[in-house]
Give the backbone structure.
Amino acid sequence: MMSHLKLSVLDQSPVHDNQPESSGLFTTIELAKACDEAGYHRYWVAEHHDTPGYASPCPELMVSNVAHATKRIRVGSGGVMLPHYSAFKVAETFKMLEAFHPGRIDLGIGRAPGGNPISSSAISAPRQTIPAEYYPSQAQDLIGFLSNNLPSEHPYSRATVVPSDVGAPPVWMLGSSDGSAEIAGVLGAGFVLALFIGTHDRPPEIIQRYKKAFQTGGSLENPEAIIAVAAICADSKEEAEYIASSHTYWKVQAFRHGARDAFFSPDEVMVKRKQLSLSDQAYYDETLATMVTGTPEECQSRLEQISALYQVDELMIVNVTHAFKPRVESYKMLAHQFGLSK
């Protein structure tokens, strides 16, 4: 069944099948090739520092490698955790990427640490971590550096980001609530609402506020919003939930207890889930309910409902599993169901 929706991918570079950590970097490349062939619109890579289960702390390196390994798909960061870095340096990095892959690069940014406090502190050492309240001005500087049009009164207006003869990749701001929505609008950036993070309510009004706040002259000419959602497609609803159990259990341990472990197999999770407290079991069920799981037809129906609810024409699919094979198959099944490659 053909659909008007564009589907994209957010890859957190999970480590599959109890393999060494670095293997997650190579499965990202393998999955990106498959999603490029399947007709997905974008492929974004995440940033995680010192986080068991996730392989990549450097999205800019993954963007380079993914873009080189693919042919058509747009490639970007989902995202660079900007408070860790100099806006000028991030602009230089992504202008370089744009030079090598013109018209295919996206720059997604966020304000979360992407790791534990010790690692976050170590990234900035011996300097202090940039406080979160500077994030809006950092994002504004980043957009200005990319297009080399900072206001004349800006202290770094005469600093030129090279190569200066290539275009500026569009900037997207990521958020799991309404915190960045209006900032993205005012700065003329794209906005991605991450439904896959947390279980709190994210009403459609968030996207409406972003669109209402949007001002031209920034990174995009028109407001563009994407909803990022966890989705696993399989031959049955039961199988999809079984596959999803690894990530669901990881989230229970990470968000309820601050414990970040490698991903357990679904068989292991079935045993461990019975040992959870009643409140943790309730959180497990609540977390699983935020994921789109089921057959291709069931997933398409639910994803189109989300698209209609938020009034967006693009969804970004997050899919974290213990084994690599069902993850690839899930993306392929969704692509076929939506008729992406036709």
Observations:
- The mean pLDDT is 95.
- The chain has one domain: 6-236+293-338.
- The first strand starts at residue 6 and ends at 11.
- The radius of gyration is 20 Å.
